[in-house]
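Hi everyone, sorry if this is the wrong subforum. Our group has a chain we'd like a structural model of before ordering constructs, and none of us has done structure prediction before. Sequence below.
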Amino acid sequence: MTATEPETRRGPAPVQGMGMLIGLLFLVLAALELMSGVADGSGPHVLFGVFSVSGLWALLHLLTGATAVFCTRSSRWAARFLLVAGACYAVVGLAGLLPLPRAVTDVLPMNTAAICLALALGTAMLILGAGWLWRRPEQRR
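Answer:
Right subforum, don't worry. Here is the predicted structure as tokens:
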């Protein structure tokens, strides 16, 4: 390559790889929640002895994972997914810190570990998505 030719990269952008990794993480989490017997509706379940889970959480994690995998076809869509999903999970984590009505906590149980995980994952996804979108266009690929 000469000095005048622009550098061309092939393959997926890093944000697409991170989006795919996060999507697969959510799909595995949903599968583990469903295998723990959460779908039978027999009450609250605990995953790994730490995280409170429910059938609705399993469904939300399944949909989030499937959306992430779908959005990784493009770097712009992957970054937007990370930004939007990260904001949603950060809001859920912050809402878990508030005293919520029993009707909400029965459907979406949140213990301290789940709140910390939602806040950490949401923040990481926000940073990844926003960092990619705010790059100069010539730095993106």
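For your construct planning: Residues 30 and 58 are 5 Å apart (CA to CA). The beta strands are 45-47, 51-53.
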